[in-house]
Write a structure and sequence with these properties.
Order of helices and strands of chain A: HHHHHEEEEHEEHEE
Low-confidence stretches of chain A: 1-15, 77-129, 144-168
Structural class of chain A: alpha+beta
Helix content of chain A: 25-40%
Number of helices of chain A: 7
Distance between the termini of chain A: 47 Å
Number of helices of chain B: 9
Oligomer: heterodimer
Largest sheet of chain B: none
Strand content of chain A: 15-25%
Largest sheet of chain A: 6 strands, antiparallel
Radius of gyration of chain A: 19 Å
Strand content of chain B: under 5%
Radius of gyration of chain B: 17 Å
Number of strands of chain A: 8
Structural class of chain B: mainly alpha
Helix content of chain B: over 70%
Order of helices and strands of chain B: HHHHHHHHH
């Protein structure tokens, strides 16, 4: 059965060529926590240039999380980390590094024209919601009012980038970082925008609620990958380890 | 499996393969909980898991003596169970609603375990992944299942299936990509 439209005629579901077959093997090793630093560099280099492998890598990570969840669910044992980071070995550092660079690269490829990140900030949502993010991450976030006249704020892709549909980057605008918090240690700055948390897109409209939900349901010891948009730097990745007492 | 357990298992398996009825019964009893857990992870449904496990055990009992090597018995039993599961999923009707839910969830893995409604969704998710698994070739599927449902080491899978460890790695990487393609382009699968 051929389930791979792009690779019709191939026996195996290669992504685009021998390099991609090799990358898939390296991704397999990464999932098993067996990637050497040399292999890690090799994988990073390939993935920076190959969109198909980049997408596969993200999916493989989610899929691994899904399997971990399935195992945990029917074991009634303490849940293992749900979101197993693809870059667990290369990104124990808070911000950016390999993953961030890769994603920054990938986003920069899609970007056409300057994103007007902060020009269209509209209203602040009244407090009450979003306190979990403040307590745990130390991020004071300003949410854009749903349906505001100029939100969403940033659009990446779209015209001039081939057939790829426009990608809206909204997210949560960080307006403050609490002293001594995780966010401060991770180098998060006011002006950054939280785009994704544990593979969930933090949409501007329901951003704070979504983030609260994710943080409340995170298990101690879980690793959460947070993606931020930073003006001038593109996407940076930060890893948040859920502490034992939330 | 600890070393003594492993040795005891191999001895039991050898007797069972030689036709010892009581050893065959013990083999089935030893396999039952392991296979049931394996199946439960595929189906997310305890009644169904019971049914599939039972069917597998019957087949294992009937065909057991065709296995030559005691060390191969466990891997063979898993492969047989995996095939029973595959047939179950292939003959089952496709769950359109569940598939939409899967896409909606984006397999985000952020569901909480406490809410009964979410537990039901997890069962659904497990079943959908199980269905996608059933679309893979046998040789790819069983390796991925042993790795992901059973959390077995690559070396162990190689031993169980009697294939080189390198083959386990390459089959895994192929199986995972296929599975992902099936889940991504669900219309093309099946």
């Amino acid at each position: 059965m051929d389930v791979d439209r792009d690779n019709a005629g191939r026996d195996e579901p290669g992504l685009c060529g021998p390099d991609c077959d090799r990358a898939a093997l390296l991704i397999e090793r990464e999932l098993a926590g067996r990637l050497t630093p040399e292999e890690s560099l090799e994988l990073s280099t390939h993935v920076a240039e190959c969109r198909a492998c980049r997408e596969y890598m993200a999916d493989a990570s989610v899929l691994a999380g899904t399997f971990a969840m399935i195992r945990a669910e029917w074991d009634k044992a303490p849940a293992p980390p749900v979101a197993r980071s693809m870059f667990a070995r290369v990104a124990p550092y808070a911000v950016g590094l390999a993953a961030g660079l890769l994603i920054a690269f990938c986003v920069s490829v899609f970007v056409r024209g300057r994103p007007a990140a902060d020009r269209h900030v509209t209203a602040t949502v009244a407090g009450g919601v979003g306190s979990v993010a403040e307590e745990t991450l130390g991020i004071v976030a300003e949410s854009e009012e749903a349906g505001g006249p100029l939100a969403p704020s940033v659009t990446v892709g779209g015209l001039g980038s081939g057939a790829r549909p426009a990608r809206h980057i909204g997210g949560l605008l960080v307006v403050g970082v609490k002293a001594g918090s995780w966010a401060e240690n991770a180098g998060i700055r006011p002006g950054d925008r939280l785009l994704e948390a544990s593979d969930t897109v933090i949409d501007a409209e329901a951003g704070r609620q979504a983030l609260d939900y994710i943080l409340r349901n995170a298990k101690p010891g879980n690793r959460m990958d947070l993606l931020f948009w930073r003006e001038g730097a593109g996407v940076v990745r930060a890893c948040y380890l859920v502490p034992d007492t939330l | 499996m600890a070393r003594q357990d492993r040795e005891a298992w191999l001895e039991l398996a050898a007797r069972a393969l030689a036709g010892d009825r009581s050893a065959q019964g013990s083999v089935l009893e030893s396999l039952r909980p392991r296979l049931q857990r394996f199946v439960l992870r595929h189906t997310g449904n305890e009644d169904l898991a019971e049914e599939v496990t039972q069917e597998s055990l019957v087949k294992i009992y009937e065909k057991m003596t065709a296995v030559r090597e005691p060390a191969a018995l466990e891997g063979w039993a898993y492969q047989l169970t995996s095939n029973v599961l595959r047939d179950h999923f292939r003959h089952g009707k496709r769950d359109e609603q569940g598939r939409e839910k899967l896409q909606m969830l984006g397999w985000s893995g952020t569901l909480s375990l406490e809410d009964p409604a979410e537990i039901a969704e997890k069962a659904e998710l497990a079943r959908l992944v199980g269905w996608a698994m059933s679309c893979l070739d046998d040789k790819h599927r069983v390796v991925l299942e042993m790795r992901e449902y059973e959390n077995r080491e690559h070396r162990e899978i190689a031993d169980m299936l009697g294939i080189p460890e390198g083959t386990v790695w390459s089959r895994l990487s192929i199986a995972r990509r296929k599975l992902r393609n099936i889940l991504r382009n669900t219309d093309e699968a099946v």
